[in-house]
Amino acid sequence: MRMVATVLFLTACLAAAPAMSRAQGSLASDPTAASEWNPLQANKDLEVGSFYLKKGNYDAAIDRFKEAARLHPGLARPYLMLGETYEKKKELPTAVASYRKYLELYRSAPDRKKLQKRIDKLAKQIALEAEHYRSAIESDTSGSFGRPQRPRS
């Protein structure tokens, strides 16, 4: 009986060997499979992104912070930095979403109350701007709001 079990086990291992080697080969040939989670590169992207933010190159900073978030999905700091950058770019809804993601990932953030006040302030500002936009559209009787007007001769 023991001999039969051993033969069956060896047969199963030999049958599975080609499938296992194909799976390992596909992982080795796919360069993105192993590089998806890279906390060291994520931290480097945060450093470089912070440099770009200080220099005022907001688009480059955003690219680096997004890459850091992709390389280390559970890390909250890239979202805080994205929020600050989007706020400087006056892209307030995206800033609010980034700040909220930061608080979602970092539930015990020491700056939680301060950041929640900031989110509330930005949300009020967004609502105010939307109201101004709405009233400007309603008060435009020519129906050409947002379109360039031709000079009248």
Please, could you describe this protein's structure?
- With 153 residues, the protein is mainly α.
- Helices cover 77% and strands 0% of the residues.
- It has seven helices and no strands.
- Helix 4 (58-71) packs antiparallel against helix 5.
Distance between the termini: 104 Å
SS elements, strand count: 0
Main sheet characteristics: none
Quote the average pLDDT. 82
Report strand %: under 5%
SSE order, one letter for each helix or strand: HHHHHHH
Separate helix tally: 7
Overall 3D form: elongated
Spans of 5+ residues with little confidence (pLDDT < 50)?
Answer: 4-34
> Which class of secondary structure composition applies to the elements?
mainly alpha
Proportion of residues in helical segments = over 70%
- CA radius of gyration: 27 Å
Topology:
Blueprint: H1 2-29, H2 31-35, H3 39-55, H4 58-71, H5 77-88, H6 92-105, H7 112-139
Helix pairs in contact: 3-4, 3-5, 4-5, 5-6, 6-7
What labels describe this entry?
7 helices; mainly alpha; 153 residues
Can you describe this structure in just a few lines?
The chain has 153 residues and is mainly alpha-helical. It has helices at residues 2-29, 31-35, 39-55, 58-71, 77-88, 92-105, 112-139.
